[in-house]
TrEMBL record, chains A, B:
It comes from Buddleja alternifolia. This is Aluminum-activated malate transporter. Its main location: membrane. InterPro entries: ALMT. One of its GO terms (cellular component) is membrane. Keywords: Ion channel, Ion transport, Membrane, Transmembrane, Transmembrane helix, Transport. The chain crosses the membrane at residues 61-79, 91-111, 118-138, 144-163, 170-190, 202-224.
């Protein structure tokens, strides 16, 4: 027995021993107190983390409620007598199906439903066939035939899960195939009511899957296709912000926390490959929704994603060069600043326009024009570097910083980071053009809407002018 | 009925119609022939793909056979009468467990086994408790209490799967918890033999999991920890080869297919994050194996992996700069070639030595020395760039290419790629040092063996000399 006493404001723990003495447990008390407080502190931080997740994405909360609703629906088969008579004790399979099949996105749920149904059907049919053959070949060979068929088919199906094309589409189906085939051919040896078993299993799975599909599609559906679409769009915006942030950071010498923070968006892009691929895999199971038809070219989104990532790699290198200690000559920096900021802002303008195109699913008449502007900015930056070299570096500097006549030579070391930043920016511009090409490919195949005719005509003119002016520039050089 | 005739060497398809006329099916025949051939061609290419996978990694084939063996073992419970009497029709759960739980690596199998067992136990206990409470509160409230408990607990458990720390360790357990709790509390309403159900389920799961664990650990085990270890080691080697390949490609102007191929290894490193994380998650469930104890610091491997990836990003940028069209002045290239190749070979030597350290799990006495050499090479490359700027670029060139007196000025544009390559190489060297730090951290925490004393003493000397000589270099500048 443990007693709690209060003495002079303090709390004491006493254990009453069998010989009627009692012991004060001060150290134990402290330990217990610490333990309980630590426990509650952990739980509290856990709850806060959970609340944060719920607040950031309420759809996750809704998903949880949807799972609850689906399970409640399925358990009705048990509670309501007429339904129970129909399906019997096998309603268990319906519960099992709902739990295993219900996923966050509609696409994933459909993928699992189709795989589960077809895997079960195929394995059930094969199992019944093998069982019939085994039955015909006498009691002695029956277990051998069944056993070896389980061994061979389970091994083969397991191996098929290693093949990428099957893994992407039918991984779960192969698992269910092994499961059902083993169950049917093994339990068939005893149960004797094989057809009934197969029929019950199929009908309960049908009940489970249809409940899942209906609930996941009707109550606040989360479409994998839509998620992929938004992910790609957001990644474009993140890259644009990162690029602006990095370059602004470098040339303005403002080490603002805000700038640095907005400059880190590219990190999400670096590691988004797996998410993109699984979303694209699930999206192709989804029916038409929003602006997307069935058979929307989700694979094209993966190409866009890959080109975004290749741009992000470059921005990562740029970010680290910018954050390294090496200093650039301030005068040259000022001179180059104009061109670099121009180029990066044009690149990020292209990215933002591409985000708008992807988001609205409307071909933009502006995009060619902006890409052209970006290329011109890249050309100007290269020209600026060329013009620097027309005269020995020393005199260039004195020209630029006229008042600073004492300064004769800018050490090449001080140009190095600037040159590196410039050539990385040019490389990023080239990769941004690749992104634009990938988005154009997507727009063509997915048949994005075209903006109204007048607008597109207007935009044709400046582009032609720019192209001509660029040609004259090139010939004059 | 379909007849096959041979006439003058050709084959004809005839359909005998009910009115005893017959029709020659030449176009259909061609179509059928095409269809069958296409079908077999597809199957053939599929088989070849499968064979290639099997040849590349025979352990995958062995895994498939292991699954077959485990399933055969479990089905023995059905075929052998005494065993069958013991477990009864519930042996189905053992089959189900084996199919679902058996994974490629031991760690993944253990993770699933522990999660399945603990999830089932926890949910079973809770289910029995809730069922008892519901039973006490009268027939009217029973279904309401059961239904709402399923709703609340299923929603809560589903939500917990969104929390990263739980997702990493107990995702499968949460799924099994929902499954078992729903089954127990729903079917308990009818079956009445609740304890027996729970007992059977637990014992069959115990049988299934123990078969899986024994087979996966005894027959050619694939340890997740070992896989992670090898992945990290191989990634280091791939980066070293890529770096060597890229730089050799650039400075030797040999566009050999071999070089290009070996230069692409870094691409695997770029996208290995998810594999590394899942392997590390599984590895912590594994008992001691090979040189790894239970509780080996697998998280440190993730840090090494992250630093390897950050290096790979830089190599990606380097690769694209090298493959871009822009030309460098040949004379300067020759001048810089020495320093760049030196630096990249030192960097890749560091990477290779780190791979050896990781592989042998032995602290190397050489590594500090090689890192120092790499830093010196980086310093020399920077010095080379500094010395270039001491005099106007034009005269530097005439000095270098003495015979080429007519050439006055090297356009800065031609230095740009060279400068970019150099500063990327310097950045890569800095990141390689980070990798070395991460590996050192791993070596300290995982208590790697130390090389024999004499060797490490020998290596101390050159390092000290180098450090002194570097200091004198720095003061003399």
């Amino acid at each position: 027995m443990v007693n709690q006493n209060e003495q002079s404001g303090g709390v004491e723990w006493r254990v009453n021993l069998p010989d009627e003495t009692s012991k004060v447990l001060t150290t134990e008390r402290i330990w217990l107190h610490e333990f309980i407080m630590g426990f509650f502190r952990k739980i509290w931080s856990f709850i806060q983390k959970a609340l944060k997740i719920g607040r950031n994405d309420p759809r996750k909360l809704i998903h949880c409620l949807k799972v609850g609703v689906a399970l409640s629906f399925v358990s009705l088969f048990y509670y309501m007598r007429p339904l129970y008579e129909g399906v019997g004790g096998n309603a268990m399979w319906a519960v099992l199906t709902v739990v295993v099949v219900f996923e966050y996105t509609v696409g994933a749920t459909l993928y699992k439903c189709v795989n589960r149904a077809s895997g079960t059907f195929l394995a059930g049919a094969l199992g019944v066939g093998v069982h019939w053959i085994a039955n015909q070949s006498g009691q002695r060979f029956e277990p051998i035939i069944l056993q070896s068929s389980v061994f061979i088919l389970a091994s083969a199906a397991t191996f098929s899960r290693f093949i990428p094309s099957i893994k992407a589409r039918f991984d779960y189906g192969a698992l269910i195939f092994i499961l059902t085939f083993s169950l049917v051919s093994v339990s068939g040896y005893r149960v004797e009511k094989l057809f009934e078993l197969a029929h019950h299993r199929l009908s309960t799975i049908a009940i489970g899957t249809s409940i899942c599909i209906i609930i996941s599609m009707l109550i606040c559906p989360v479409w994998a296709g839509n998620e992929l679409h938004n992910l790609i769009k957001n990644n474009m915006e993140k890259l644009a912000d990162s690029l602006d942030g990095c370059v602004a950071n470098y040339f303005k010498n403002d080490a603002n926390a805000n700038n640095t923070k907005s400059g880190l968006g590219y990190r999400c892009v670096l590691s988004s490959k797996v998410t993109e691929e699984s979303l694209a895999n699930f999206a192709r199971w989804e029916p038409a929704h929003g602006g997307f038809s069935f058979g929307h070219p989700w694979k094209e989104y993966l190409k866009v994603g890959a080109s975004l990532r290749s741009s992000a790699y470059c921005i990562e290198a740029l970010d680290s060069i910018i954050n390294s200690d090496s200093k650039s000559s301030d005068i040259l920096k000022k001179h180059f600043s104009k061109f670099c900021v121009e180029l990066s802002s044009k690149s990020s303008a292209v990215l933002k326009e591409l985000a708008v195109i992807t988001n609205t699913m409307t071909k933009s008449s502006k995009i060619d024009f902006i890409v052209e502007e970006m290329n011109n900015a890249a050309q100007e930056l290269q020209n600026a570097m060329k013009s620097l070299s027309k005269q020995p570096i020393a005199s260039t500097v004195t020209k630029l910083g006229g008042s600073d006549a004492g300064l004769d030579i800018v050490p090449l070391v001080e140009i190095v980071p600037l040159v590196t930043v410039s050539s990385l920016l040019i490389e990023i511009a080239a990769r941004t053009e690749n992104i634009a090409k990938a988005v154009n490919g997507l727009a063509d195949i997915a048949e994005f809407r075209v903006e109204s005719g007048e607008k597109s005509k207007k935009s044709q003119n400046p582009q032609v002018i720019i192209q001509i002016s660029q040609k004259t520039m090139e010939t004059s050089q």
